[in-house]
TrEMBL record:
<dbReference type="GO" id="GO:0016020">
    <property type="term" value="C:membrane"/>
</dbReference>
<keyword id="KW-0479">Metal-binding</keyword>
<comment type="similarity">
    <text>Belongs to the PP2C family.</text>
</comment>
<dbReference type="GO" id="GO:0046872">
    <property type="term" value="F:metal ion binding"/>
</dbReference>
<keyword id="KW-0904">Protein phosphatase</keyword>
<dbReference type="InterPro" id="IPR000222">
    <property type="entry name" value="PP2C_BS"/>
</dbReference>
<keyword id="KW-0472">Membrane</keyword>
<dbReference type="InterPro" id="IPR015655">
    <property type="entry name" value="PP2C"/>
</dbReference>
<dbReference type="Pfam" id="PF00481">
    <property type="entry name" value="PP2C"/>
</dbReference>
<feature type="region of interest" description="Disordered">
    <location>
        <begin position="107"/>
        <end position="138"/>
    </location>
</feature>
<keyword id="KW-0378">Hydrolase</keyword>
<protein>
    <recommendedName>
        <fullName>PPM-type phosphatase domain-containing protein</fullName>
    </recommendedName>
</protein>
<dbReference type="GO" id="GO:0004722">
    <property type="term" value="F:protein serine/threonine phosphatase activity"/>
</dbReference>
<dbReference type="InterPro" id="IPR001932">
    <property type="entry name" value="PPM-type_phosphatase-like_dom"/>
</dbReference>
<feature type="compositionally biased region" description="Basic and acidic residues">
    <location>
        <begin position="107"/>
        <end position="122"/>
    </location>
</feature>
<dbReference type="InterPro" id="IPR036457">
    <property type="entry name" value="PPM-type-like_dom_sf"/>
</dbReference>
<feature type="compositionally biased region" description="Basic and acidic residues">
    <location>
        <begin position="129"/>
        <end position="138"/>
    </location>
</feature>
Length: 356
């Protein structure tokens, strides 16, 4: 993640970014995406100058540019497959948890014994073309039959195959009282406000306190998971399907009648295989004036999996009053332990709007 702040006579500009990788090379994908946004788009295009964006016309330009930037990065990831800067190192084989999960899915696939006529062949596209037999196996669904694949010297990820690795991405530009957010995946940014500024659906209310109006936490309207009907329809129209995982009971995205890729988000960067079956990299864009809102909570998916919107709103309010982030992280840690020892990387940014 990153936080950039530029305070000038034209106003204070803050840029926040949260990136959450997944899959064997997810940490490399998220690092690559973050570096791309920082070096080639935000800094080189003068996004850090308040005078460059503090007009309605410029805000409209930025919204269009952000969509193109997300799509361009996806094209680069698919074309390069192993992008520049993804140096080969000892972490190339992924974590033990990754390999355990893949072996478990492989074993379940064998038990299912899907009829041959249900095998799905992917159309060849520029994002999947390769002379490697492992790439062909991934497209035709043959590789999942070998539960020892990830211990074999012909490991398809050995040279950086991004078919099953990707990252979420959420950016927020905050200048004076205006915010633009662009996101793919479940690293959501939510606004905390007092009163009933937003409709009740989807908001969190932590109740009346000392005569003050209730504090609400407003999540994005568009949920980038296969539970969202609009996203689900697109996946089915692209030869994918959504069903409950036997491993963690989450609704995940699969090739029809197969046990992969098992992605839990419907939009991402990377994930070349999932992009063949309806997952997209087009971001949703949100723009609004902050008014009397209190704060912006920007967190990776692990935060929202562990804590309810009500808990996050209450903890963010506690931090503003006490000046300590300890209650937030203590709650996250306790939630992990109570959830059977959940292991996840959690990123969190809390930005207060009306605080010196």
């Amino acid at each position: 993640m990153f936080i950039l702040i530029n305070d000038s006579k034209q106003g204070c500009l803050k840029v926040f970014g949260v990136f959450d990788g997944h899959g064997p090379f997810g940490h490399k994908v998220s690092k690559y995406v973050q570096t791309k946004f920082l070096t080639e788009y935000i800094i080189q295009n003068d996004y850090l100058k308040p005078e460059m964006i503090n007009t309605p016309e410029r805000f409209e330009d930025i919204k269009r540019e952000l969509i193109n930037i997300f799509l361009d990065i996806q094209d680069e990831l698919e074309a390069k497959n192993f992008p520049e800067g993804f140096e080969d190192d000892e972490s190339i084989s992924g974590t033990q948890n990754d390999n355990d999960m893949i072996r478990k899915i492989s074993e379940e696939s064998e038990e299912e014994k899907v009829p041959k006529e249900h095998h799905v062949n992917f159309k060849e596209s520029s994002s999947m073309k390769s002379d490697k037999s492992s790439d062909k196996d991934i497209r035709t669904g043959n590789f999942i039959k070998d539960s020892n694949l990830f211990h074999h010297e012909e490991n398809p990820f050995q040279h950086g195959d991004l078919s099953l690795s990707g990252s979420t991405c959420t950016l927020a530009f905050h200048i004076n009282r205006r915010i633009i957010m662009a996101y793919v995946g479940d690293s959501y940014a939510c606004v905390g406000c007092r009163g009933k500024r937003f409709k009740s659906g989807g908001t969190a209310n932590i109740g009346q306190q000392k005569g003050k109006k209730a504090i609400l936490l407003m999540p994005p309207e568009m949920d980038h998971t296969p539970k969202n009907m609009e996203e689900k329809i697109r996946i089915y129209n692209s030869s994918g399907e959504v069903r409950e995982s036997a491993v963690d009971k989450k609704r995940r995205i699969y090739v029809r009648a197969r046990m992969y890729p098992g992605l839990s988000i419907s939009r991402s960067l990377g994930d070349a295989l999932a992009h063949e079956i309806g997952v997209v990299s087009t971001p949703d864009i949100i723009e609004y004036n902050t008014g009397s809102d209190l704060f912006l909570v920007h967190g990776s998916g692990g935060l929202w999996d562990l804590l309810s919107a009500e808990e996050v709103a209450e903890l963010a309010t506690s931090y503003q009053e006490n000046g300590s982030v300890d209650p937030i992280w203590t709650k996250v840690k306790d939630s992990c332990l109570n959830d059977g020892g959940t292991i996840d990387d959690v990123s969190l940014i809390v930005s207060y709007f009306n605080r010196s």
